[in-house]
Design a protein that fits this description.
heterodimer, A: mainly alpha, two-stranded antiparallel ribbon, 21 helices, 2 strands, globular, B: mainly alpha, 75% helix, 3% strand
């Protein structure tokens, strides 16, 4: 490898390098930070992410392939990285006070989040099954630890253990699929796989390999039948980590799914049938089971399963609009979901867990502004215009109908009508019940900033979707 | 285009709602809401002043790019079919504010914000010339209406609000799929005028007709998807009931007129008998149910189902008299039923009971009120000289021209209407003065008079001299008929 090629590779992966270096420095600095000064770590972490973000945006002008075709910095990756940066920065802002209350504000917390971010970034840029694997593992290993960060709590430990075991199995399945692909085609690079196959693309061996890879990836986005970990992990993990996981790693999983599934080889194997079935079942399960949840975090876990199902419909649709619709969906979901999690995190104060839906009774009476924000996020999650959540769903439906999958579109909207029920049930609790106790939300300026930003995104993209839509469409074509 | 008048009309209430969020004093909130809705009404009068009744073309049009990548535009405009409903919505805006002046005594600010938001969205629905924009207005209405019913409603409000929300949402979502299918078949545009000019294959038209039917039938509501209506009406606060009856129900019928008839003409003609039968069933069934009610609001709610059946009957006769009668009847029903709900609300504020059995002899205690009640009840049963008579006569003559049996059912509905409305009036207003003694009922005061009098004026005006109203809709209805019967452009 000559110096020039190496330089090109480093340039292409500069944001990743910035994040990993920053994480290492913070790990050391974290030991030197005196007690009570932990908020320094928050701002330092945010600064690292912002540096990486500016690097990404500066290098977004052209497509750079690096590390002998294992890594690419294209517009597709840039779009996803922006979603990751957004999710991570907002998680840092939300964590500041929450970490203090829960007593988890040590440097490792922030370092692990940064490392998870770098894993996600590698996933978005990976063009080889092995580099995908490296990014994936880097990300999930960090989230395993973060899930169990509430060391004193049994359910946090239980969640982490479940997550590790199930995650390990799914990674094994994924690797097995990769090994089959390598055995059949002699390569693990996505774009070389298609040319390596000269025979029937519906070769049973290859189909088996694809199914294994699909299974491994579907686990990460929490789709049926590999969703069992989601409710327990989401409930047990610190709420900030739940918020992060429901947006960042899920988007990273979809980034990989899109790259892999849109590969000509995989596209030829009629895999969309599997994806369509997974999408419908995932959405049905998420929507129906969420109806009976009393715990806010569990409800949001099932809601995130349902949303993963809806985004899967976009994958099933395929084509440029299908890809763009998934990307736009994930961006919008990041705003509205971090918004609603921001409220739940803020409610964790003193003895108040903020996790039981019934505890929010009459919230609108004492905090009308915050209740209005909740109303906004919830109606957006339900997909009611003029919020962004509606446009996200609308665009997926457009992609489905464009490809002739009208029946899938009908299934998708019917299930989203079911899903609407549990969102508006929360609206009912906060608006139509009498308050039982006083609320003292931990509303710090950084939480306030998060809520303002997510609200602006939720309503702004809803009213003026044109620019974001173009962004997603360009990024989809660029990928 | 000098002044975007329609945008002003649509967004004045929205701006008012935003401004209200920062007001603390309840009285200031009430007066501001009244001022905003009155201003909106004035703008609407100005719009009607410049309305050209000789053309069927869209007027006061505005078009701006919104999401160019998907062919979505921000396009507003009105023709003879939408103009009456823009006017009706603007008129009822300030009447609703007056009706909630003392009835809403808690969370006044939130109520008025919801009411104004609702107002803006309803006006948007009638003005939208882009299907996507239409859908956004149409669906966004669920949010304020859900809150209005659920927060300020009666004892069973939560159940009613859920039922209203889920019914309408499920219907609307099928409409959304229809809209997207129409988008791809109609040349990737959401522009209503362009889509009207397209000719779709019959197969596609049929599918779309039923997708649209689900959404519109829920809103109208037609039997058998009407069951949300009695719950929502009974539980909603007075202003909510007025909005529901007077404007929301019209949107379903408006949807047929704006989309099903002109865009899917062959399917409309093909399935018109089915629609006529469904309408006739609604007329008779709604009337029979109304006959059996003891709750004043429920009675008016079921009478709405019957009367809206008459409207859809008129529309699907697909002849000039039926259509004009149907549209006029939509307007009349808005005024009359709005007024009836207002009347029920006024008396409920005094007695806190809606059970007909509790009333009696109201005429002695509140003669002015009772006179208004009599006028609206008579109008609702289409007595000659009141507005509904004109509309109902047109619909009936259109119905007999289209289908004898259906016409007979409509007449039966009219008879039932006389039975339950006169029965209600007799029990409430006449007889021994039981209720006046118990509650010391006072008659209507100046504020209530200001709310109820304009409605009475319209009832009598249209009843005696309907010509100006029919003139507004005439050109557009003729053009619509030409579109349906495939005679090309009528001009």
């Amino acid at each position: 490898m000559t110096a020039a090629v190496l330089f090109q590779s480093i340039l292409a992966s500069l944001p990743e390098i910035v994040v990993i270096t920053g994480a290492c420095i913070l790990l050391i600095l974290g030991q030197l930070v005196p007690k009570g000064q932990e908020h320094f770590l928050v701002w330092a972490s945010v600064a690292v992410v912002l540096m990486a973000a500016s690097g990404t945006l500066m290098l977004a002008g052209e497509v750079r392939s690096a590390y002998s075709g294992m890594f690419i910095a294209d517009r597709f990756a840039v779009f996803f990285k922006v979603v990751f940066y957004l999710a991570t920065v907002l998680t840092f802002l939300l964590s500041q006070r929450y970490a203090e209350i829960e007593g988890i504000g040590r440097s490792e917390y922030y370092v692990l989040l940064l490392l998870a971010l770098s894993g996600m970034m590698i996933m978005a840029s990976a063009t080889d099954l092995l580099s995908i694997y490296v990014g994936l593992e880097l990300m999930v290993l960090c989230t395993y630890v973060l899930t169990g960060f509430l060391r004193q709590q049994q359910r946090s430990n239980e969640a982490a253990l479940k997550y590790v075991i199930l995650g390990g199995v799914s990674t094994g399945i994924f690797l097995y699929g990769v090994s089959l692909v390598y055995g059949l085609t002699g390569t693990t690079q996505l774009d070389k796989m298609a040319t390596a196959v000269t025979g029937n693309p519906l070769d049973p061996g290859l189909l088996l390999a694809v199914v294994f890879i699909v299974a491994g990836l579907v686990f990460k986005v929490g789709a049926v039948p590999f969703h069992m970990w989601v409710p327990d992990v989401y409930e047990g993990a610190p709420t900030t980590i739940t918020a992060f996981m429901s947006v960042g790693p899920k988007a990273a999983g979809f980034a990989v799914i899109l790259r892999v599934f849109l590969n000509p080889l995989v596209a030829a194997s009629n895999v969309w049938v599997i994806v369509a079935v997974i999408a419908a079942v995932t959405m049905a399960l998420g929507s129906f089971v969420a109806l009976v949840q009393d715990n806010f975090k569990r409800l949001l876990a099932y809601s995130s399963i349902a949303h993963a199902g809806f985004a899967m419909f976009g994958v099933a649709a395929g084509g440029a609009d299908g890809v763009a619709s998934v990307m736009l969906y994930l961006l919008i979901y990041a705003f509205m979901n971090l918004g609603i999690f921001g409220i739940v995190i803020m409610m964790r104060n003193g003895d108040f867990s903020g996790e039981v839906i019934e505890h929010y009774a009459g919230f609108a009476k004492s905090h009308s502004g915050l209740a209005l924000l909740m109303l906004l996020y919830l109606f957006s999650l339900a997909g009611i215009p003029p919020t962004a959540g509606f446009f996200a769903k609308f665009y997926v439906l457009v992609a489905l109908v464009e490809r002739g999958f009208v029946m899938l579109a009908v299934i998708a909207v019917l299930l989203s009508a079911v899903a609407a029920y549990f969102y508006i049930r929360i609206v009912m609790v906060i608006y139509m019940r009498e308050p039982e106790g006083a609320f003292v939300p931990a509303l710090t300026p950084s939480v306030g900033a998060t809520l303002a930003l997510t609200a602006a995104g939720t309503i702004g993209i809803g009213l003026f979707p044109a620019w974001f839509l173009r962004l997603a469409q360009h990024a989809a074509i660029g990928g | 285009m000098a002044m975007p008048l329609l945008s002003l009309i649509v967004f004045t209430p929205a701006v008012g709602a935003t401004a209200l969020m920062f007001v603390r004093n309840d009285d200031v909130v009430r007066w501001t809401a009244l001022g905003v809705t009155a201003l909106d009404f004035a703008l609407c009068i100005a719009m009607l002043g410049g309305f050209d009744t000789s053309t069927h073309e869209m007027q006061f049009t505005e078009t701006h790019q919104w999401v160019p990548a998907l062919g979505i535009t921000y396009a507003l405009g009105i023709d003879g079919i939408s103009a009456p409903f823009v006017f009706l919505t603007a008129l009822l805006g300030w009447i609703c504010v007056l009706a909630s002046w003392v009835a809403i005594d808690r969370k006044v600010k939130e109520f008025m914000v919801s009411l104004l938001a609702m107002q803006a969205l309803m006006l948007g629905v009638f003005c939208a010339l882009d299907l996507f924009l239409f859908y956004v207005f149409w669906e966004a209405m669920l949010i304020p209406m859900y809150v209005i019913i659920g927060v300020w409603g009666g004892d069973g409000r939560v159940y009613a609000a859920f039922k209203f929300f889920l019914y309408t949402l499920a219907g609307s979502l099928m409409f959304l799929i229809g809209v997207i299918v129409l988008y791809f078949h109609g040349g990737e545009t959401f522009d209503i005028r362009t889509l009207m000019a397209q000719h779709l294959p019959f197969q596609v038209q049929s599918w779309l007709f039923f997708a649209f039917l689900i959404a519109f039938a829920v809103k109208v509501p037609m039997v058998p998807v009407h069951t949300w209506l009695p719950d929502a009406h009974v539980q909603a606060p007075t202003a909510g009931s007025i909005i529901l009856a007077a404007v929301l129900l019209k949107m379903g019928a408006y949807g047929f007129l704006r989309f099903s008839l002109p865009m899917l003409p062959e399917a409309t003609v093909h399935y018109s008998t089915l629609m006529l039968v469904l309408s006739a069933v609604a007329i008779v069934y709604g009337g029979l149910l109304a006959l059996a009610q003891d709750d004043l609001k429920k009675l008016v709610a079921y009478s709405s189902i019957s009367h809206m059946g008459l409207v859809t009957l008129g529309i699907f006769t697909l002849n000039l008299r039926g259509l004009e009668g149907g549209i006029l009847q939509m307007f009349n029903h808005g005024v009359t039923t709005g007024a009836l709900f207002l009347s029920v609300g006024l008396i409920y504020e005094r007695t806190h009971t809606r059970s007909i059995a509790d009333y009696g002899g109201l005429m002695k205690a509140a003669p002015v009120y009772t006179a208004f009640l009599a006028l609206f009840a008579l109008s609702s049963m289409a007595l000659p000289g009141t507005s509904s008579f004109v509309g109902e006569l047109l619909v009936l003559s259109g119905a007999f021209a289209a289908n004898l049996a259906v016409g007979a059912a409509a007449v039966l509905g009219a008879l039932l209407g006389a039975a339950y409305l006169l029965g209600m009036y007799r029990k409430v207003a006449l007889g021994p003065a039981s209720i006046g003694v118990r509650f010391k009922i006072r008659d209507v005061n100046a504020r209530e008079m200001a709310a109820i009098l304009p409605l009475a004026v319209f009832v009598v005006w249209i009843g005696l001299y309907p010509k100006p109203f029919l003139e507004i809709i005439d050109a557009s209805v003729k053009h619509l008929l030409a579109q349906v019967h495939g005679k090309g452009d009528a001009q």
